[in-house]
Amino acid sequence: MGMIKKIINWSRLKSPWILHFNTGACNACDIEIIAALTPRYDLERFGVILKGTPRHADVLVCSGPVTRQIEDRLIRIYEQMAEPKFVVAVGTCACTGGVFGGCYNVKGGINSAIPVSAYIPGCPASPKAIIDGVVKLLKSLEESETKAAPAK
Amino acid sequence: MLASLIYILIFPGFAFLGVFGLFAEFFDRKLYARLQNRVGPPWFQPFADFIKLLGKEEIVPCDANPAMFTLVPVIALSTVVAAFLYIPLWNTTSLLSFNGDIIVILYLLTIPTLAFFIGGWYSSSLFARIGSVRAVTQLFAYEVPLFIGILSAALLANTWSLSEIMTFYNKSPVLALFNILGFGVSLIALLGKLEKVPFDIPEAETEIVAGAFTEYSGKFLALLRLTLDVEMVAGAALLAAVFLPFGLGANPVIGFIFFIAKVLFVIALITLLRTVFARLRIDQMISFCWKRMVPVAILQLLICLILKGVIQR
Ligand code: SF4
User: Fold this and answer.
1) Cβ contacts (< 8 Å) between A44 and chain B: which residues?
2) What is d(CA B43, CA B192) in angstroms, rounded to the nearest whole number?
3) Distance from CA of B270 to the nearest CA of A (A)
4) CATH number belonging to domain A15-135
5) What is the C-alpha separation between B234 and B230, in angstroms, rounded?
6) SS3 of A49, please?
7) Is the preceding peptide bond at A121 cis, omega within 30 degrees of 0?
């Protein structure tokens, strides 16, 4: 049993498929996320593939503050993803609300709507920072999974 | 009994085809990346993807028909594996063979597309429905040139049995050179069958998310991806058997290496085509298939008929 679990954990770390969702960013963070996926940075080396549907994705990459309009949709997309799933917040806005924090139409960072596993600050976060953040997320998963079985 | 179990489950059944299919996916993706000047995925990437998907939660949408939704991946995978049993590997005899098996192979390779259609339709998501309807629309365009291309080679050999076709071309390899048009047409049609780039209209991820696979997750998605990989291997093996009948009859080891090399060669051609071209629209694809590929396939048929007359004289 232990062996099978180890293999599954290994495969999870080696093939994180991502879904990109703009929760209300000014678009600069989105452009940087797209830049990180271009052949120049070649994320397929780490098994990262951009997927169009939440059913296929493991990691939800969100950019921008959560606006009141998008909140329901964000939660719905999160619920459509299959377990185990992780959320990465890209950009200062996604971490805390950033420059939009406290606006009448903004709720706050991504963690005001759904649980977040990794925060990548920067306005906008550069592609290198995004890759670094994802690698750190995977590392922390590796450590936590060797210590204890993850809560489902 | 035991022997047939081994044939079905290990070689050349599920285990061998699964591993070879996943390896072929790696080969395809790596070559694709190298052609785009990227580094590309490591060798274990398709295996990691497959195991990860097996370990994930699977969700059946509440509007979907659960029986259809869950049965479709299994049916699709088993039909392509069954099709492979009829294709000879290192010599000219396949595991199962009878007169007419080439038609059976072509039909067995059609069933996955219909299965994707049914799965996409019953998952009752808008994107999946559009994707599955497109898959079937496309089916009517590429099947005709594929059938004419492959069957004209069979016509020249004067038999409907794949083993006898291979024996025929193995005896006179020069005749295989006359089938080059048919090979080109079947290769392009195979791109449509595998939903690869110029014809990946059914799963166009920039328009309709993931086509018929949109609602699939976990184990089901793993099986569907494996189906496409095995279909790629089976299609490439079929083309290699009909159009590249070289290096047969030697001892099994060398023959087997030849077989793998031929299949990888066909897959490399597919990858090259999908790197060079961009996606067509569905109407462009259909008019291309009917107006360009069918005439070329019929030309191939004429060449074969004339050649046959000349040979028999
Ligand atoms: S962090 Fe900066 S660049 Fe990113 S969405 Fe917010 S304001 Fe735009």
Assistant:
1) 29, 33, 38-41, 45
2) 26
3) 20
4) 3.40.50.12280
5) 6
6) strand
7) no
Supply the pTM of this predicted model: 0.85
With beta carbons less than 8 A apart as the criterion, state whether A64 and A94 touch. Answer: yes
Return the closest-CA partner of residue B106 out of B165, B167, B50. B165
Q: What is the mean pLDDT of each run of 10 residues along chain A (152 residues)?
A: 77 84 86 86 83 86 87 88 85 84 83 86 86 83 60 38
Question: Which residues lie closer than 8 Å to A54 by C-beta, 6 or more apart?
Answer: A19, A60, A77, A78, A80, A81
- Smallest CA–CA distance, residue B133 to chain A, in Å, is 19
Is the backbone peptide bond immediately before B202 cis, with ω within 30 degrees of 0? no
Report ipTM (2 d.p.): 0.81
B214-271 tens-digit pLDDT: 888 888 888 888 888 888 888 888 888 888 877 666 677 777 788 888 888 899 998 9
Whether A19 is in the pocket of ligand 1, judged by its Cβ within 6 Å, is no
Residues forming a β-bridge with A18: A50, A59
Which structure tokens are listed for B203? 């799963």
Cβ–Cβ under 8 Å, residues A81 and A54: yes
Residue type, B15: A
- CA A91 to ligand 1: nearest atom: 1
How many whole angstroms separate alpha carbon B232 and alpha carbon B17? 11
Return the H-helix or E-strand segment holding B208: helix B205-208
Cβ–Cβ gap B55/A8 under 8 Å: yes
